[in-house]
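Tutorial sheet, problem 5. The two components below are modelled jointly, 504 residues in total.
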Amino acid sequence: MIEFKNIRKSFGQKLVLDGVSHIMENGKTNLIIGTSGSGKTVLQKCLVGLFEPDEGEIIYDGVSFTEMSEDDRKMLRQQIGMLFQGSALFDSMNVEQNIRFPLDMFTKDTKAQKNKRVNEVLERVNLSGSNKKFPSEISGGMKKRVGIARAIVLNPKFLFCDEPNSGLDPQTSMLIDKLIYDITKEFNMTTIINTHDMNSVMEIGDNILYMKEGRKEWTGNSKDIIFSDNKSLNQFIFASEFLKDAKQMRMMESKREQK
Amino acid sequence: MNFLAHFGRYILMLKGMLSKPENGRLYWKEFMKQCVDIGIGSLGIVVIISVFMGAVSTLQTAYQISNPLISKSIISQIVRDTVILEFSPTLVCIVLAGVVGSKIASELGNMRVSEQIDALEIMGINTKSYLIMPKIAAAIITIPLLVMLSMALGIYGGRMTGVFSGIISAETFDRGLLDKFIPYNVTFALMKAYTFAFIISSVPAYYGYHVKGGALEIGKSSTTSVVVSCVTILFADYILAALLL
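Model answer (structure tokens):
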């Protein structure tokens, strides 16, 4: 579980995060949503320690991250996996070397054990047989899956995903969403996802934080979102006529189920 | 940002590098990779520059010494001393600032922009230590070796040109080489080489590591790093000459 309280962050005169507090729950897919510039990425970077918040506290499983020494943070970071928007694979390494890198750096496993673990996670993300391919030789969707494989190879307790569906077609996006969702449940991880993707919001949103102009505007889950009367949230989520119709249909379905 | 802000951040980067490696074996592997990239990768250009540098020195010195009363062996003495004292350490390092420096700045800049450095940070790796220290260490090991090779090749290139063009006989050239040779000059040249090696690797690493933006900014930082490295080398050259000669 990750709890953050009253996070504030400015860049120069610009206040980007204005006292955001929330709890990211264990074993759930926690989504941070909001328009571009609402502070989602800055919040996520504060949570993983890439940015230092000006004020506020971040607590990982009861331990304050903001007050930790650099050495303790390094230890904690070995329990954090992160999937970056652009996958951030190491260009000079092939798929296998990319995934094996955290194992080489932090474990004393034998080569055979490492290879076994690499093949396990590659199989888990449906990329068996792609070991020797370089990042430049694989598609965007495959890069994301390699990124996920690298993020989970050390069995992290916390998984961060920054816009996992950006630049992917709808079908591949759904596969990535399902993969992240399944992994979260399977390993009981605390997963935090920054996303714009409405399909992700509706399909895998166990715990959603909607941000607007650096503040927490709404929280709930994918079912609550249908019935929310928050005007700003509705404008953001159901921006098109198609999505408005989808909302109406979902509401009718829910009412029918209740009867 | 002003000079002091850059300098302060540069010092903090160097300080940040000094930490216990997370895994010594991987750091060693990275160091060896950098040795190959910087040392072997620059070998070709160093050989070409050095041979031609020595050859041109011989031709131009001979052209300027037209007095028949001056012994021709003085040509090889002048070639030897200019190559050892200035051409090999300074000229070669300025060229290496372009070749090696731009590579370091663009490599780190690309890693920064594509979030590869962030990915390493998230894993709990000290990126300054893992990415920058092996480059500086490799440069400090390999560049003085390249400079020594350059000295030998520069003098050999000068000898070859002198002999083949009929300016000076091989015996006279060799006699001149040994005449009034001051071993301290080689020590001084190596001190310069170590200093320049540090500049060539650390300044571009600073610019590459702190890139913000995209492809355009990587290019800009690469160019800036080469310019700053070259100016710093020339400045350090003057300071070292004033202090140590």
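Marking note: Chain B has a mean pLDDT of 93. Full credit if you identified this.
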